[in-house]
Amino acid sequence: MTEKTSNWTRRDDAMVESMIRRGATRRDLLRMFMAGGMSLAAGSLVLGRATAALADTPVTGGHFKAAGWSASTADTLDPAKASLSTDYTRCCAYYNRLTFMVEDGSVEMELAESIETKDAKVWTVKLKSGVTFHNGKTFDAEDVVYSLNRHKDPEVGSKAAAMAGQIAEVKAVDPTTVEITLAAANADLPILLSMHHFMMVANGTKDFTTANGTGAFVSEVFEPGVRSIGKRNDNYFKAQKAHLDSFEYFGIADETARVNALLSGDVQLAGAVKPQSVRLIESQPGFVAQRNDAGNYTDLNIRLDMDPGDKAGFIEGVKYLMNRDLMAKSALRGMATIANDQPVSPASPFHNADLKPREFDPERAKSLFEKSGLLGKTVPLVTTEAAPSAIELSMLLQQAGVEIGMNFELQRVPADGYWSNYWLKAPFHVGHINPRPTPDTLFSLLYASDAPWNESGFRNEKFDSMLVEARGELDFARRKEIYDEMQVMVSNEAGTAIPLWMSIIDGVSPRVKGLRPNPLGNQMGFAMAEYVWLAD
């Protein structure tokens, strides 16, 4: 590293800020910078930037109102069933996980005191003492056993059932010790346990009309598809309680209305605003459009087991008909990275950079559509505001189709109920996937034969066996080799057309402080309610 800091990224800034929070001194950090080849001047610049980011002093009090981009009458307080941003935000506020992923991508302990293993197959989890649920019950090992095992119960309908299927046995050794035995070794277990779905619930809980968690907030109001209100839990086990007195979260599907609510002061945060709104937001004094590049994407899903996806050549034709450069510039205003039809983004060390995106080739697409027998016929594409920028991406595909005689009929449906009624079900439809921290998580959720969110119905026995092999592989080089091949398989064989990795942009009021990036997505991986505060 030289005098220039052009190779220094926001992820590196986050790492330094996290180290400062954990007690690293200026001398410690400068010594680390210089050991890495950075000059004293450049190191001082980086350190000054990180220190300034932490300079605001948190204040206590206030009611925080935030608007996400989607909500539904199917909204839930059951973390196992969470699937929307609104679900994740509530669950992060009312419950806790055994581990928590911080902004630099590392995993810290939350309800766990420690997690240890000798072989990546049998794990010993020591739990924190003195933690209580909102109803006063003491958190213990039996709650962990119940919380993890319920994902494996088909009647629960857990969105993380495929990931939880890796767990062969969970047993309570004593009230503060749990032993987790996996069916096969998985070095990523601490990361897996930081996922939103693996929140801890009280042993025996079946009623989720309210939330009885251990989290920083207590649920006061839960109106599915309307709003949620939580108040600060003054008995929270962490030394640092939530700064806010209360928070309110709801969905505003219309992006213009969401931005207007932010600028008028009706809300202090508008989630997932469009790139087209950035200039307007940042033209107002103190307002910020906060960007997160963790691997978020909106995709076009073509079911392999339905018409037209079962016609040879159609899916590949769609992938060649996507003008990815135009999509990035027009629909995303440059706030995107060109993707290669698989979900592992450049933010991951396992990203296959040798797998190049398909070039825009309308003549090749036309030939493939002719092969499928669909050229000139009308093919419905279900699209919605529920998936960020999906309308714009769909329209650009439609326009490209017109030029070669391919007619895509856009069926624009309401955001409310989209994820229950159309996603995973319609033959050709849009989807939206929030960032996930590992390839194993992405592939287990989206592409394994038994994946709960298998958007195109992709099934491949070799892929499934490679997923298990990579999961237990402790050698990074070999693991990357496996993941590289799996990315190629998804790009070439699955019916998911992923044109871009999109920057997630939240519009933020000047009153909101403490909001940080997170690898699990925007709004601090949806955990913002616990950490932000409102300035006067």
Question: What is the arithmetic mean of pLDDT?
Answer: 92
Stretches where pLDDT is under 50 for at least 5 consecutive residues are 1-5
What fraction of residues sit in β-strands? 15-25%
Taking Cα atoms only, what radius of gyration do you get, to the nearest Å? 23 Å
Number of strands: 20
Given the C-alpha coordinates, what overall shape results? globular
Considering DSSP H and I runs of 4 or more, what fraction of the residues is helical?
Answer: 25-40%
Structural class: alpha+beta
Q: With helices defined by DSSP (H or I, 4 residues minimum), what is the helix count?
A: 19
- Terminal residue distance: 41 Å
Largest sheet: 10 strands, mixed
What is the topology?
Elements (H helix, E strand, L loop, with lengths): L9 H12 L4 H10 L4 H14 L9 E6 L16 H10 L4 E3 L5 E3 L2 E6 L4 E6 L13 H9 L11 H4 L2 E8 L2 E6 L6 H4 L24 E7 L3 E6 L13 E6 L3 H10 L4 E2 L7 H5 L5 E15 L11 H8 L2 H8 L4 E3 L23 H11 L5 E7 L5 H15 L2 E7 L4 H4 L6 E6 L5 H8 L14 H12 L3 H18 L2 E2 L2 E9 L3 E2 L8 H4 L2 H4 L1 E2 L2
Parallel strand pairs: 1-10, 1-11, 14-15
Antiparallel strand pairs: 2-3, 4-5, 5-7, 6-7, 8-9, 9-10, 11-18, 12-16, 12-17, 12-18, 13-18, 19-20
Helix pairs in contact: 1-3, 2-3, 10-12, 16-17
